[in-house]
Amino acid sequence: MDRSIVSGRPDGIAARGPSRLARRAILAALLASPARAQEPFAEAASRRLVLNGTGVRRFFGFQVFRGYLYLVARESDAARIIASPEPKLLRLVYLRDVDRGRLVSTWEEAFATHCGCAVPPDFRARFRDLREGEVETWLFTPAGAEVRYGNEAPARVPAADAPRLLAYFIGADAPSDGLRRGLLGLS
Predict the structure, then answer these.
(1) pLDDT tens digits for the chain (187 residues)?
(2) How far, in Å, CA of 82 to CA of 76, rounded?
(3) Phi, psi (deg, nearest 5) at residue 49
(4) What is the Cα–Cα distance from 38 to 68, expressed in whole angstroms?
């Protein structure tokens, strides 16, 4: 019998799966993936928060970022989450590069539509091209919201505007129903 037919290789050597080292490298890469590596808990505003839900923001069918919403206690009612004085942490992990121009137009529209306000100057000053894997965090407290890219100093959103901006992600009129449902733990 011709061994090349059995093994599928012309040299007749039976093919094996990836080496142990290669399997470990694949596993490490999967575990390091931002979409998989989020912890079920986070520390923010001196509180331990639990992962409420996760969802993906798509634009023209492309995945732009994965969002992770952390709350003091799990909750699926957006109005109750938005009204709560408890801290809320929203992490956005970018799944693709986003150029500065797209970022500016998206946030200008979001601030104008959802809070009727302008993009805070210190937030606007941070707009730059974002690369796949970068993380943006939003910490919502009664004092307002702090938005930060990576380890940069936070930009501040006034307390009056912060709840409306949280509604941009989880409110009834959120532009991405898939992201909204995921963050609320409904999907």
Answers:
(1) 444 333 343 444 444 555 555 444 444 443 344 444 568 999 999 999 999 999 999 988 899 999 999 999 999 999 999 999 999 999 999 999 999 999 899 889 888 887 788 888 878 888 889 999 999 999 999 999 999 988 888 999 889 889 989 999 999 989 999 999 999 999 8
(2) 11
(3) -110, 150
(4) 8
Is residue 2 packed enough to be buried (19+ CB in 10 Å), middle (13-18) or exposed (0-12)? exposed
Q: How far apart are the C-alpha atoms of 63 and 46, rounded to whole Å?
A: 32
Q: Which residue is associated with the tokens 């509180």?
A: 47
Which is nearest to 185 in space by CA: 96, 36, 70, 88? 70
* Cα 54 to Cα 39: distance, rounded to the nearest angstrom: 11
Q: Are 52 and 71 in contact (CB under 8 A)?
A: yes
Q: Are 82 and 75 in contact (CB under 8 A)?
A: no
Q: H helices of 131-175, where? A: 162-170
